[in-house]
Amino acid sequence: MIAAGFGAGGLFSAARALPPEQVDQAFATVTVLTPVTAAGEVRALKDVGMVAFFSPLAADLFAKNWRQRQPGEAEFRVAPLALTTFEAAYLAARQKDEALQRAYLPDPAQIPAVVGLLQQQGVQPEQARNLARQQPYVLCPDPLVRITPTAQGADRSTSSRTVVPCAFSFTTMALLVNQSNVSAKRPTVLKAYSLDEMVRFLSNENGEDARNLVITSPIPRSSSPAQAASSSD
Fold first, then answer.
1. Residue 23 above 60 pLDDT?
2. CA 56, CA 194: separation in Å to the nearest integer?
3. Is 103 helix (H, G, I), strand (E, B) or coil?
4. Residue 96 confidence (pLDDT)
5. Which three-class secondary structure string do you get for 199-212?
6. Is the pLDDT of residue 62 over 60?
């Protein structure tokens, strides 16, 4: 489970926390790329451990560097995997090897925006650059934006569900914030949260916003089970 893997702390105080199943649910739709064998099984890399890439570009850049370090390896294959599944695989593998490491590699295209947001949140420039390179960040509006779309079924009945959107993409969330600010009583801004911070929020907050929070996946689900990471420069 994501909650067990990342660990839950105490960013927010609440009388009751969301159960681990609901915490996992928020991350179940988040897809990452991870190294796999030719048979499609998740693999740990020598001297690196298990790796989750949060964009094809992150996987391609890593693959290029990996081939230089491992000249005997002809192909570096990655496959899409739910973040919760990746986390479960890591925890299972770590039971056999307590020294096994894991890494979450962010989309390089998002790093400049994350650096800027972290600095706006009071992080010093050098620390912001280091943090943005080391891990992915979820971007959420502040205050949170609540969207309630209405859907019509085949029997013409209508249903609606409030969604609190967050994403790993700066462009996606910036567009939402701009739209929100058109009618907002007070300006909405973007804030960057690490995965640990998101888990702590979901684990400790029992409000509707936590239940309705939806994180847009950085990787669309691929129809193919595995693919070779690009070797182009």
1. yes
2. 20
3. strand
4. 93
5. HHHHHHCCCHHHHH
6. yes
Which two structure tokens, joined as six digits, stand for 166? 């967050």
Residues 99-109 have a mean pLDDT of: 96
pLDDT average, residue stretch 81-109: 94
DSSP state of 42: B
Phi, psi (degrees; rounded to nearest 5) at 153:
-85, 180
Question: Which amino acid type is present at position 155?
Answer: D
Rounded to 5 degrees, what angle do the CA atoms 71, 74, 76 make? Answer: 100
Is-contact 196 6, C-beta < 8 A? yes
C-beta neighbour count of 178 within 10 angstroms: 10
25's tokens: 């649910």
Q: What does the pLDDT average to over 110-139?
A: 97
Residue 113 DSSP one-character state: H
Q: What angle do CA 170, 45, 80 make, to 5 degrees?
A: 45
Average pLDDT, the chain: 82
